[in-house]
């Protein structure tokens, strides 16, 4: 039982329950597109795709996407970069039961932000945000650390990471976006200049 809990997070509906640092709170709770907000806090914004492939969803996300147990999904993982600094590790899953008409743009996204396809589509409905504090042993914490280590970034050591997730629906499809906020996000400050996507 303990082993299982180390790999799963306790997702809750109120941000105060995860006791996140104050400077992180507006990132966790912000409405609208995270991409748009990050662009407003940087001169250059980029989506670095780590992979997009078929995978088995995580144990603590199966039920959220309507699966009784972890099953096959389309999985996309990216680093969102502001002025080349990685500030968010994002993990998106779409059940294999979805067909191409549910998420027509998902498979060919490349380095375009998923957010631009979700927030611009009147057929997409957004669920409520859930929050979690990720232990170092959570799969998404491990993957975020591995992504940073791959580029020689200072290890995140054992510090807690804070995440949010949101379920999107379109036609018969569901899509779950989980965003793990990396420590450098708290160094961002709003810019007045327009940003350009590199
Ligand atoms: C959902 C959004 O899309 C962002 C972009 C993602 C991607 O390109 O894979 C994943 C998660 C988000 O942070 C958003 O901008 O709010």
Automatic annotation (TrEMBL):
Enzyme class: lyase
Reactions this protein catalyses: chorismate = 4-hydroxybenzoate + pyruvate
Keyword match GTP-binding: no
Any Pfam family: Chor_lyase
GO molecular function, one term: chorismate lyase activity
One GO term (biological process): ubiquinone biosynthetic process
Stored InterPro entries: Chorismate--pyruvate_lyase, Chorismate_lyase_/UTRA_dom_sf
Pathway assigned in UniProt: Cofactor biosynthesis; ubiquinone biosynthesis
Keyword annotations: Cytoplasm, Lyase, Pyruvate, Ubiquinone biosynthesis
Cellular component GO terms held in the UniProt record: cytosol
Localization of this protein: Cytoplasm
Keyword flag Transmembrane: no
Binding site for substrate: 76, 114, 179
Record-listed E.C. numbers: 4.1.3.40
HAMAP family tied to this protein: UbiC
PANTHER family: CHORISMATE PYRUVATE-LYASE
Record family assignment: Belongs to the UbiC family.
Function: Removes the pyruvyl group from chorismate, with concomitant aromatization of the ring, to provide 4-hydroxybenzoate (4HB) for the ubiquinone pathway.
Protein name: Probable chorismate pyruvate-lyase
Organism in which the protein naturally occurs: Pseudoduganella armeniaca
Name of the coding gene: ubiC
């Amino acid at each position: 039982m303990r082993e299982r809990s180390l790999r799963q997070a306790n997702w809750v509906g109120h941000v105060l329950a995860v006791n996140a640092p104050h400077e992180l709170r507006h990132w966790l709770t912000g409405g609208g597109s995270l991409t748009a907000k990050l662009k407003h806090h940087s001169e250059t914004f980029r989506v670095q795709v780590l992979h997009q492939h078929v995978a088995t969803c995580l144990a603590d996300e199966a039920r959220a996407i309507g699966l009784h147990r972890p099953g096959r999904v389309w999985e996309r993982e990216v680093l969102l970069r502001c002025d080349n600094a990685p500030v968010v590790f994002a993990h998106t899953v779409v059940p294999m039961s979805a067909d191409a008409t549910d998420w027509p743009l998902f498979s060919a996204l490349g380095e375009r932000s998923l957010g631009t396809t979700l927030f611009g589509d009147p057929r997409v409905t957004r669920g409520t945000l859930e929050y979690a504090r990720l232990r170092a042993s959570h799969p998404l914490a491990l993957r975020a650390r591995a992504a940073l280590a791959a580029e020689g970034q200072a290890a995140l050591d054992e510090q807690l990471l804070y995440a949010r997730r949101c379920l999107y629906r379109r036609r018969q499809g569901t899509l779950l976006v989980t965003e793990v906020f990396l420590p450098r996000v708290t160094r961002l400050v709003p810019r007045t200049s327009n940003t350009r996507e590199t």
